[in-house]
Amino acid sequence: MTGLQGIEFVGQATQRQNRRRAMRHWNTPLHTKRIETERAVRRFIDCTPSYYRFWAVADKTTDRCLGLVNYHDGHIRNKRVAIGYIVDPAHCRQGVATEAVSAMIRFCFQDLGLHRLQAFIHPDNAPSLKLIEKLGFRREGLLRENLRVSDEWRDDLLYARLSTDRPADTGSEGRR
139-148 — which CB contacts under 8 Å span 24+ positions? Predict the structure, then answer.
């Protein structure tokens, strides 16, 4: 998938009629201009792997971008990162996120040798909470007014998974 395809995905997700629904739990304001999306995708591509990395989630047949997964806020010395993901609403509940996030978890633990993965999830984001629990993350607490998006403060639920935790049985955890 090219950078242009990534721009198109992020642009589509932020410009659709249902963009507020699709992006309401994202940690940045909605992009209203193509240039904002282009800048975001350039940041995704020009990453610092010890701090953050983004991957496009592409359809195996068409190579069309279906979403993004990432790790960010890397603390390599402490062997810890936060993870994030987003899937086009038209492809939700089809196993796309489970497969993509499972692959990223394997990469973080096996290839990077990390010890702790964290996920900060909006309390109203039921699909994400279900996914992260299915993948073996444990809830550690509520972080009140932890994230500021535009002028709005948001709470987050903190979930974590350790390299020493038993892997979740997702059906895709062992696939490559």
Answer: 146/120, 147/27, 147/120
Please, where are the H alpha helices in the chain? 3-15, 19-23, 34-45, 96-106, 126-134
Q: What is the pLDDT of residues 113-160, one digit of tens each?
A: 999 999 999 999 999 999 999 999 999 999 999 988 888 899 999 999
Q: Rounded CA gap, 154 and 72, in Å?
A: 19
Q: Does 22 fall in a domain?
A: no
Q: How far apart are CA 168 and CA 159, in angstroms?
A: 14
Q: d(Cα 3, Cα 52) in Å, to the nearest integer?
A: 17
Strand-strand pairing, 116-121 and 65-75:
unpaired
Domain holding 69, by residue range, is 50-162
Dihedral in degrees, nearest 10, Cα atoms 155, 67, 168, 175: -170
- This prediction has a pTM of 0.73
Tokens found for residue 158: 């903190």
CATH of the domain at 104: 3.40.630.30
Give the pair of three-digit tokens for residue 111: 């290839």
